[in-house]
Amino acid sequence: MTVLTYRAVIFDLGGVVFPSPFDTFAAYERDHDLPERFIRSVVAASADHGAWARLERGELTTPEFHAAFERECAAAGGVVDAAELMGAIALGFGARPEMVDAITRIRDAGLRTGALTNNWRSPENDDHARTTTGGIDDLAELFDVVVESAEVGLRKPDPRIYELACTRLSVQPSETVFLDDLGVNLKPARELGMTTIKVIDPGRALRELGDVLAIPLGAHGR
């Protein structure tokens, strides 16, 4: 029987360490009489060439994104104020305490930790490499490496961004566990050899991670 030895855990941010921006999408849709999952459908339909993807790769400034995304929403039959939507996302982020506790425990156990996130530049820093993901600066000390899509010009699920995260952590994919809330982002990680965990319920995901690492995490780690 082969025993896997893990050296690092990589966390997605929005939807894993922080609440999902999809929750803000849903609230915006309810407040503005838009169909359920309308914004998600616009993002998905525009795929890798749409405004959202281009924002996350750092290819658009904030005003350019606002205009482009509003056009995409209008073409899909809805009116979205992109500035209002993005402002709501920024306000809605606060780290999940159980995730912060788990990351601390993992580091205390001697494993390396990384953050791998699709994000965007803050409006006040559109011309610079400075990016924002709902308070990541406050948690940066928890991670040995932070890989941000808008900084490196790649975004999940491009396999190259996972390889970059592993390279910066000085680990092989097979030595790594990766947590994300989207299956589309987990598939390429798994194909590279990473052990993957889908985060739907944070507590359950942490218990699964604890079992994988043989480290008490989540509710049974307290």
Structural write-up:
This protein has helices at 21-31, 38-46, 51-56, 62-75, 82-91, 97-108, 136-139, 149-152, 159-169, 183-192, 202-213, and strands spanning 8-11, 112-117, 120-121, 131-132, 145-148, 176-180, 195-198. The chain has 222 residues and is an alpha/beta fold. It has 2 domains: 8-19 and 94-221, Rossmann fold (3-Layer(aba) Sandwich), CATH 3.40.50.1000; 21-91, Orthogonal Bundle (DNA polymerase, domain 1), CATH 1.10.150.240. The strands form 2 sheets. Strands 5-2-1-6-7 form a 5-stranded parallel beta sheet, sandwiched between helices. Strands 3-4 form a two-stranded antiparallel sheet. It is globular and about 50 Å long.
- Determine the N-to-C terminus distance: 31 Å
Structural class by SSE content: alpha/beta
CATH class of the largest domain: Alpha Beta
Number of domains: 2
Low-confidence stretches: 127-134
CATH superfamily of the largest domain: HAD superfamily/HAD-like
Number of strands: 7
Gyration radius over CA: 18 Å
The CATH architecture category of the largest domain equals: 3-Layer(aba) Sandwich
Mean pLDDT: 90
By CATH, the topology of the largest domain is Rossmann fold
Spatial order of strands in the largest sheet: 5-2-1-6-7
Biggest beta-sheet profile: 5 strands, parallel
* Share in helix: 40-55%
